[in-house]
Amino acid sequence: MGLFKKYVNQTRKPEGTLGKMMLAGMNSGHAKLADWGMSYLPELTPKHIADLGCGGGRNAGELLKKYPTAFVTALDYSALSVQKAKEYNQKMIEAGRCKVIRGDVSDLRLKAGGYDLVTAFETIYFWPGLEKCFAQAAGILKPGGYFMICNESDGTDKTSKRFEAIIEGMRCYTPDEITKALKAAGFSEVNANRHPSKPWITVLAKKKG
Hints:
Layout: H1 3-8, H2 16-29, H3 31-38, E1 48-52, H4 58-66, E2 71-76, H5 79-88, H6 90-94, E3 98-102, E4 115-121, H7 130-140, E5 141-151, H8 158-166, H9 175-184, E6 187-194, E7 201-207
Parallel strand pairs: 1-2, 1-4, 2-3, 4-5
Antiparallel strand pairs: 5-7, 6-7
Helix pairs in contact: 7-9
């Protein structure tokens, strides 16, 4: 496997030196996408937020800023991601407003019905079965809670499809595919938005009240 292919495959589960490089790039490279996605969140005053597939921890940090009375639980499958996200959010962890844990989105060990908002930035490409994992997200949400997905790919753009061909386990989804899986997982209202000039999408789903 060539160096470039080894590097881009770190997007799934960052490890080692290449993984550290990937996480640093994620925090900066995905910032505009994440901020655009968060702009679609409705007026909320969440007490508990879960950021699934937290990567380097930057987006968890932005959620802590956006909701200054909220507690954020950031979760990732990669031990290296957990380490880096802890470093990024160390002050908020010490302040008692954040924790970063290792976990599996297909088997969440978080409090059932304990969260007002769940987020997933640039991560569902690697989830092992959308409907199953979305059902896990629904399970930890309170009735009426929101689940927000933000992706750089709309499932059809050429760049992402090229990466899909070389990154092991990656699958790009269209808004329709995501919406169908969300409704099958128990979400009632689902709204998808596209960026006007980029293949970015953000999908906001509300759990039945």
